[in-house]
Specification:
single chain, 10 strands, alpha+beta, about 160 residues, 5-stranded antiparallel beta sheet
Amino acid sequence: MLSFEQKLAIADEFKELTRKDVSLGRVNYQFEGSAFDKKNVVYHLHRSGNGFVYAGRLEGYDTDDKGFANIAAFSEEQLRTIIAASIDSLRSEAGVASEPALEEIWRNEKRQTLELKYDDEDTMWYVYAGLNLDGAFDSYDEAAEYLKEEGFSKA
């Protein structure tokens, strides 16, 4: 299990999150850019190592009635993945994706990265592993689905 300090360090990596110290020594991290009333991404992170991440708009996580997943036993990779996915899920209203960036970095649990790039000339989406082409897709949705199937999420 990761320590309180290790979990804080991981949450601090996400520059779009704002740290808020709350009662009883607990810490929240809020996403001010949320398209929803929900702003807490990391909730009640405690010195014991217990805490929660909002996963109410994500699949594959056990959540409480407020949509939070307990992260007490999460690994470093699992914690990074759920925080990134949580932020991404709060970026768009009613599940409708916002306009994708023309270049995005995607990361898996092993911290490997792939780059998704749009080429305006041929209107295609390309996935690169470094300088190597990993895949070409007609739409952003196809490329994003491929990346998710391969275990990647937006960084």
